[in-house]
Amino acid sequence: MSRARIQELIKDGCVNLDGKILTSASLKLRGGEVLTLEVPDPKPTILRAENIPLDIIYEDEELLVINKAAGMVVHPGAGNYDGTLVNALLYHCKDNLSGIGGVERPGIVHRLDKDTSGLMIVAKTDHAHQSLSAQLADRTLSRVYHAIVLGVPMPLKGKVDKPIGRSPSNRLKMSVKGRASREAITFYKVLQDIRGDFSLVECKLQTGRTHQIRVHMQSIGYPLIGDPLYGPQRNILESKINKSVEHIDNKEYIMNFDRQALHAGFISFSHPVTGKIMDFACDMPEDMAQLLKNLNK
User: How many Cβ atoms sit within 10 Å of the Cβ of residue 27?
Assistant: First the structure.
């Protein structure tokens, strides 16, 4: 189970310490205590199954690998109760989704931001969910992203090791100077230097914090094109475009690119049942491919 799920169970009174309900997740143990955890049955979901097309790269009895489109929210929440990936999965998989997260049939092992495209794994069984979550935790599940950024990172290959937490000034943002920061490590490599003004960068996650690549690239001075939270200031982006790009239509496309230019292009993991290493890759979507093309003109 995830750390957040354990904390939730403590809050709900599902953990006993020496026969008494544990009320604080921060209590320090001395040693010798007996902890008992009672995991309740998954709560029935009230979410609606919706017939939304999915780009399914792979599927078997245990899991699916999906190429999520940019603009699709993964899990329902405030303001997004319909049209999400979970709504689509409930329709496609019927009752065959893991309930390990505490709600019946969610299946979500890891997430992508709404406007990040690319590969995601979905668990159909609790066994698959446990196995894949364990691989996330021990970092044997590998994820590689492609990002288009302002500027060219120096050195061309490197490691960003900066803890990430909630921004103290904006609750919608994460920050390397945030509250309750947790370890966050991103490895990057420049794949294409576009006249020294822009670049295509490969990013590999060692940890999986919220907005990690977006925050890390911004923190070292190379924000993602189109990122509404961490992207370059408009006047700086416009100055670079005017210097580097000639055709007016190409300039407008770049200036008006309306999502972070980030795509989860590769994922690798061990199959929960067979143990076989599973590798999947998918090309950048059309909007990012067009952005790269326009930057190169």
Answer: 10
Spatial distance between the Cα atoms of 174 and 211, rounded to a whole number of angstroms: 7
256 Cβ contact list (under 8 Å, min separation 6): none
pLDDT averaged over every residue in the chain = 91
Model's pTM, two decimal places? 0.82
- Do residues 213 and 145 lie in contact, with contact meaning Cβ atoms separated by under 8 Å? yes
Establish whether 161 is a catalytic residue.
no
In whole angstroms, give the CA distance from residue 173 to residue 164.
Answer: 10
Of the pLDDT bands very low, low, confident and very high (cuts 50, 70, 90), residue 100 is: low
Residue 263 pairs with which residues in a beta bridge? 117, 146
CA gap 272, 276 in Å, rounded: 8
Strands (E), 79-177: 117-123, 142-150, 157-161, 164-166, 174-175
CATH class, 139-296 region: alpha beta
Catalytic residue selected from 60, 113, 115, 249:
113
DSSP state for residue 153 in the 8-state scheme:
-
Q: Which two tokens stand for residue 18?
A: 């020496």
Which is the CATH superfamily of the domain at 43-125? Pseudouridine synthase (3.30.2350.10)
